[in-house]
Amino acid sequence: MDIRPIKSKRTTEIILEQIKGLIVKGELCAGDRLLTENELAERFEVSRTSVREALAALSLTGILEIRQGGGIFVKANASNAIIEPLTFILLLEKDKLQNILEVRKALEVEAAGLAAQRRKEEDLAILKELIEQMEADLPEAKNSEALDLKFHLTLAKATDNPLLDRMMNTVQEIMGQTLQVTRALWMSATAGTTARLLEDHRSIYETIRDQNADLARRLTYEHLRKVEMEFSKYKDEDEE
Question: Which InterPro entries would you find in this protein's record (predicted)?
């Protein structure tokens, strides 16, 4: 386990970040028992007081469970406790549309690559069914927004990375709150939009099926960039 000695005035804060980092990287998992307070102090080369303060803070935020006389353990929902502050930050930024779209693009492009590498047959079955539903939904495209959302969240689940899955769900939820009306109008009212999106989704699905991670990333980037440009133009016209 990569625990580095700490030589700083902000010892408690750095201990917090190192332990959270170990959880995010998967070096500490739900149910794992940490070293004792004394052992952590020795490894970090800090006082027991600093370690105790850091552990208490991680316990209060729901990341660790301190059992009296039984040790210190990573809680089952530790990743949620790490994600929730990010959710709060994104909510504060929700009026800055470009920031949210950039976060979404960064997450979804990598998710597509990982999904291509790790997808299971059941993931492919769901994605294929969604493509068929998109086809059946044309030309009225009454369900295009919901199907688009399901497609991208299925990609997130196919990464087999619960943290990335949760982050993408969080970003999509905030986008839904912020853009719901305008996005729905754009997807339903713009001629040919849903047909073009269907072809994008079909191409992405094929790269996932063929396990072509690099192409999956590139097509997803191009797809999201196209969506951003068209949506921004429609939104600007709507606000005039």
Answer: GntR_C, TF_FadR/GntR_C, Tscrpt_reg_HTH_GntR, WH-like_DNA-bd_sf, WH_DNA-bd_sf
